[in-house]
Structures are given as C-alpha cells and as structure tokens.
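The passage that follows is intended for readers who have already worked through the single-chain material. We present the inputs for a multi-component assembly, then the predicted structure in tokenized form, and finally a short commentary. You are encouraged to pause after the input and sketch how you expect the pieces to fit together before reading on.
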Amino acid sequence: MRTVLMVAEKPSLAQSIAKILSKGSCTSRKGLNASCSVHEFTGSFQGQTVQYKMTSVCGHVMSLDFIAKYNNWDKVDPAELFSQAPTEKKEVNPKLNMVKFLQMEARGCDYLVLWLDCDKEGENICFEVLDAVQPMMKSALHEQTVYRAKFSSITDTDIWKAMNTLGTPNRNEALSVDARQELDLRIGCAFTRFQTKYFQGKYGNLDSTLISFGPCQTPTLGFCVERHDKIQSFKPENYWVIQAKVFKGKDNPLTLDWNRVKVFDKEVGQMFVNLVKTSKEALVESVTKKEKAKQRPLALNTVEMLRVASSSLGMGPQHTMQIAERLYTQGYISYPRTETTHYPENFDLKGTLKQQINSRWWGEEVKNLLSAGINQPKKGVDAGDHPPITPMRAASEIELGSDGWRLYEYITQHFIATVSPDCKYLQTTIVFNIGTEEFSCSGKTLISPGYTTFMPWQGIPLEEALPVCESGDVFTVEEIKLLEKQTGPPDYLTEAELITLMEKHGIGTDASIPVHINNVCQRNYVTVENGRKLKPTNLGIVLVHGYYKIDAELVLPSIRSAVEKQLTLIALGKAHFQEVLQHALEIFKKKFHYFVDSICGELTYSHALQTNPFSEWIRWCSGFTGMDDLMEVSFSPIADSGKPMSRCGKCRRFMKFILAKPSRLHCSHCDETYSLPQNGAIKLYKELRCPLDDFELVLWTSGTRGKSYPLCPYCYSNPPFRDTKKNVGCNECTHPSCQHSLNSLGIGQCVECDSGVLVLDPTSGPKWKMSCNRCNVVVHFFEHAHRVQVAQENCEACDAPLVTVDFNKARTPLPDGETQHTGCVFCDSLFQDLVELKHAAMRHPMHRGGGARRGRGRGRGRRGPPKRPKDKMAELAAYFV
DNA sequence: GCAAGGTC
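Having made your guess, compare it with the prediction:
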C-alpha cells in the first residue's frame, strides 16, 4: 500500500485535519521530538487505497543567519553585511530535531501533501519541509508526488474541499519570504551593530547593552516618539464658551451647551454673552427623539483581544499572549492567533453558548438569550486563517488563576455579545433659543441593553432624565456665564492606540506585534506608565530625532510598506527574487553609508575605512553633526562617566568604571573601553597586576552567597593564550605560574558539569569555598580557617593538588588541637567532614541552579564530600592542550 | 550581542 505524508504548520492543526479526513478513526503516536505527533489512518487517494501519515512542524523549520565568521562584532565591518557576508539556513530549534524527524517519517513515502497555513509564510515553510523530505521519498518519474492543500478554515467542508482540489506549492510566494528574511537580517544587523558599537564607545550612561534597529521595531518606537513630540510642542490656547442654566417650574436647573461650541476671542465671547443676556427667557425651538443603536461587536481576533486586554485589563500584549496560549493548550479557548472576525458558516454558536448556561456570572442571561433566540453575528472579515477566538468550555476562576480568568472572562463576554442584540437607546435633543443664540441639551435613555449586558463597560450610563417639554415651551434663564477654558495637550500613546497604529500601517503581524512592543521596552527606548501609556525614554527620543534629522525614512512606517510592495511583486511572479533583493539592498546600503557619514561628520566613512582597519576607525570619528548633537544633550561622554577603579596596563593611569549597562572600564587617556562580566559587582583586587600586560586585576562577584573570581580587564577581551576563551577570568587562565591562574588555584574536576574545574576562591575566607569555573557549583570548605592554600604536591591516590589549611588554635576542628593540615580535599579522611557542596546563589533569577536548589535541609556534609573524580588530572590537562 | 517571522 502506498503512503501519503501530510504536514501541517502546527501540532494542533495536524490533529484537527487528521480527525476530519479520517472521520475520527486515526491512531496517534508521539514523534521523535516531544512536540509533534503523527496521526495515521487508511483512506483513498486518487482512486487508490493508501496509508495516510499526518504530522506537523512547529512554525518555521529553518531560519536565516550569517555564516559564523561574520558574527564577530569586533572583526566585521557592518557595511559588509549588505552584500559580502554569506548567509546560511540553520535549523530554528536544533533541540526539536525537526529535519531529522521529518526525514524519518518521510522515508519510503510515495506522496506528500503540504497543509501549511495559507499565507506567504506557510508557502515558505512548504519548501522548508520539501527540502528536508524530498530526498527520503520514493521517486516517481511520470507522476506528481508533491501537493499543496489550500484551505480557508478548519471545517469539514473546507478541509475536504482542499483535499479534493490539491494544487502545487507556489515557489514565488515562498521566494518573497526568503527575500524578506534576507533584507531584514542584513539591514537590521548592520544598523544595530554599527549603532551599538558607535554609541557604546562614546557615551557612558546609555543604560542599554544593545541599540537595536529594525524595520518593525524602529517605526514602532517612532509612533511613541511622534506623540511625545506632539505633547512637547503643544501650545495651550485659551477659548471661551457660554454656559447657560435654565429651569421650568420647580424642576432642577438644566445646563445647556452653546451651539457655537466655543470662540477663541474673549471680546467676541463677551459680545455674544451680551446678546444672550438681553433675554430672560429660553424658548424651546424643537424637541427631537431618535432611537439609536450601539452595534454588537465583531467576532474577536487577536489584535482586538490585545487592545482590550491592554486598555481594560491592564495586561501587556506579550503577557496576554502567554496567558492566551495557556488557555488554548488547556482547552479553554480556541486558537488565539487569528486575524478573522467572521464565524465560519457551520460554527456551532448555540453549542458554544450552551456551555455557559451554568456560569454563576452570566448563566441566567445566557439562558434568556437562548430561549429568546440568538442574534445572527455581524459579518466580519474571513482572513482564511483560524476561526475567531471563542471559549471552548466552561471554566471557573480557581482553575484558571487570576489573569487567566480575567482574559477568559473577557473572551467569553465578547463571544456572548457577538450573538446578542444591539444595544438600543433613545437620544433626546432639546434646542433652545435665548436671544439670538441657539443652545441645546441632549440625553440618552436606555431602551434595551442588548449585548451591553455582557460588556457592561460599553453600556449607556444612567443619566438624569431631561424635562418633558415640547416646542414653544418657555424656560426661565437662571444664569449666563462666559467660561474661560484652555486646550490641553494630548496624552502619551496608549498601548492599545499603538497596536491600532501598527495594524493600520502593516507594522508586524498579529503574532509579532507583541514582540515589537516588548522589544522597544526591553531596549530601554520606551517605558510603560500608568494606564499602559508608552513614554519614550531619552535614548528612544534621541534615536528617533536623529533618524529624522539624518534620514527620516529609517523611522517612518512607510518604509516597511514600500519594501512589502516590492516583495509582493516577487510573490506575484512579476519580478525576480534577485532583482528585488539587490535593488533593496543597494538602497539600504546607501542609506547606511549616508547614516554613518552623517554621524561621523567630517571624516567620511570610506576615507576612514581606507586609512584604518574597522576596529580602529570608529575612534577617528570626530566633528559630529546630527545624531551626536542630540546624544550629547542627554548622555555624557564616556570619558566623563564613571569612577576611577583600576590602572590601565598601557598608560598606568586610572581607568574609570562605568556602572551603567553594559558595565565596562574606560581608559580616557588611551581612549579604550574594556568589557566586563555583567550581573555582578566589580571591585579592585588588592592592586594586584596581571603578569602578562600589567593591567590591575579586578574582582567580579555575584554576591556573598555566590561566586567570585579575579580577572584582568585586558585579557578578558583579548585572550592571552591560544587555548583561552574570550570573556573569562583568571580562574580559566592557563598561565603556568601566575598565582591567580587556574593552574595555581585549580583543585579538581567539577562534581556536576563535565567541563569545569573547581578553583579555590582566594577571597572567600573565612567562609572558604572553591567554585566551578564553568557552572554554578560551589563547594564550601574549612569554615573559619584563617588560611587555605593550594599546595605544590599532588594526592598520591587521585593526583589532585593538595590543600594546606591553617586554623586558629581556639577554633581548630582538627584532632589533637592541631592547627595545620595538608591533604587531599577528595581523599583525606581528616577533611571529609569539612567539605560541603552547594550551588552558587545567582543574582539573576533566570540562571539555572542557584536559588531554587539552595535548601537549608542539606546539613553540612549530608551529601558527603564531592564525588571522587575518575581522572581529575586528565580533566585538568584538557585545559592545557 | 543583531532582524522578523513562524510556533510551544
């Protein structure tokens, strides 16, 4: 029997489609990776009985990156990223082993049906799957073996229709995505690397480790700054309004609005007041009553959910999506990433509603709605991806958790609202004549709440009823006043407004909008204020103003849509991939050079390149215009930042320690910046010097319960030996004789990780410890000893260096009041009770180990001394190869 | 260390 392999874009879809095509009779098994399942069933395919295998990928299989040597920020000129730097496709998530999994499943299959999402990205993934799978499939000479299923919703009719009208994957659409990936990568990385290096080398208090640029994130930031500028440049204006109060009989006075609304000239206002004041009576000119409706909402899609979650629930988009994902995988809501606002024809609206009849919150109203008959939902847009977001089963607050419940509650309320009647109300307007001027007042009274029963925040607020009157009635004027008012500035952009702007300008997609917003926050360009308002930081403002000054297109949203337009030409087969790509790259390369030239002022970029290798030229940039003028207002030059710390090995002057992220050392005399390990504190290390370069050592420490090690600021960035890695401290340095090196202080192989060595922390006394130079393992030993040293000799049993310990006479734990002992930490019986294993407490909660595993329960020595290493010297020796 | 786009 022949086999048909079918691949969907995500596991949940593979399952749904298999269920439909097998009429519920498929058997399922886990695939090679934990994420993907394979659903198998027998059926017919082109008139023959076949075995079907339905599975999925998890989004993209491959992603684009530069080949490794172009990922060195110090050696590669960002300008090379526009053309010279070759790219390669790598597996997105090597842990998932997706290619291997697909190949395993494809081995010996006869046909392939691609069920990827029906958009350009899906088309691109088709070819990623195809590339992986085709070599493993049986080859047929005169027969089509690869098919594309095109479906517009996940319903029986649609899936069967797709199956019966299979086509072929569209290479052009896939290529347009390839082009987008390459453009985004080359442009984004080139600008990001240049900006980061340039500004970091120049300013000491930037407070950002990365100054990123991207075709989506930069316009996103641009929107926030645009509003900021409007606020800043706002000039309040005085205006005047006439307020009239009238009454009839014993009724409360009625405040009327002036039909001219306002005037911007006080004298003109006063003139009107005088005209009005000639009359003591207000004559009712007309009374109109209009029945109006507030329309029930469209079915819910992702972007609307994100907007409401932000504005009404105070939940950020990233967080909202995480919660929604969870609700989806737990079966409470339907798939949360969709652009569609129209329910499929056969959607079971009543069934979905019936699930809610026992709810203690809205059960009664739902019952009423069902018995009165539900309303046909409004016609929305069917984007052909997934049905709108709806609840899938009843739930309670306890099982969902606070935010989970709030989001579920909203999704459910929104769903019920879409099948409820519109809200109906009566709008009454009374128009008055006082003297020559017209005034009016209006009010709303509820006729039937309709959907606002379920979305009470949209309800018609209760108002005081207007007096009953008809045209010709006369009211008495109680008061006429000229009020002076002032126009106010707009407020900062709310997250919900930003989402709307991004959607409108095509910046990002439903899935990526939250990521871009998160990016501009994490990069310190924007902060989220009360009410989820987005306020740009100094850095964000300066960057955007800089782009405006140099090349506004870099920040305008139109840049994205222009590129998208070109890409569509590829998708339509009207332009060639290479043509469009090269053309766009050419334009952006010019923009890049112009940007660099503008920032660097007099010295042109190409000139600088000719005369200096890349690593040298950045410092040559001087005589700035544009961006730097702006930067200097908000940020201080690196030479003026920080406090003196340790001496430079080249000029012997003090270097300054800059605390702002990324913390670093800067020698203003040599104009050099040296990077340091992050997430810890830096101190001077006893004015000791590195024997190789004469730089004063500094001590990095992650806190009292964590690790610490000395490092040489120069060696840290410029590894001294061929076998030393970049960005390591003295505890990984292989210097043969320096007293701070791994060679002098290493004691034995790490008890947990494979590659680390336990190194004595010479600063840790009196709570002595040795810590692994690779992982978080810390071994506490010889508490209260007043000296711990690594001896010259090695253990006869295991060859580990011996350790000499000195205790005070009064506190010595050694037998017979002995104060000194030399022995092996791993083998010596006297030492056995004096050694204890722990994990370093890390400052950063993201690091593994550390905190969570630090139990009080483990008494000293409970786990015994560290395991006896098999061959410690072999491990140690590995370091010196 | 970088982009944006999928998805878990």
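Commentary: The longest helix of chain A spans residues 171-200. Residues 607-625, 841-881 of chain A have pLDDT under 50 and may be disordered. How closely did your sketch match?
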